[in-house]
What does this fold into?
Amino acid sequence: MRLTKFTDLALRAVMTLAATKDAEPLTTREVAHAMDVPYTHMAKAIARLQHLGVIEARRGRGGGLALTEAGRHTSVGRLVRDLEGEEEVVACEGDSPCPLRGACRLRGALRTAQEAFYSALDPLTVHDLAASPTGPVLVGLIGRRHA
It folds into this structure.
């Protein structure tokens, strides 16, 4: 299974916010800069994470991004499911449906494998992703913003 770039960006954003929880709040632009991605892409990921209740954004002086308490304890498996959507690994229906769809064993096997992938991520929380050795690396990347 392969994650979309969008999900990858969103996960990197929450990891960064988890690692810098005690620092001054970061802006979307600072997170994008630290992850070396375009601001517009990161802004879309941040908006989706806000919609999911994982992060909050405060405007104005002293504002910035922060993980919500629920976001810090969110299961990575649940978060990836929410970001990736409920689509199957293969597209058996659509404009040109697969002629095997009525008797295919692959579709069910791939659905089982997809759920096993998500289930393997379920025990991890966003907080866990920012533990050492990852957290200090993320803090170092954010430290570049002051350089």
Observations:
- The mean pLDDT is 87.
- The helical segments are 5-19, 28-35, 39-51, 69-72, 76-84, 106-121, 126-129, 134-143.
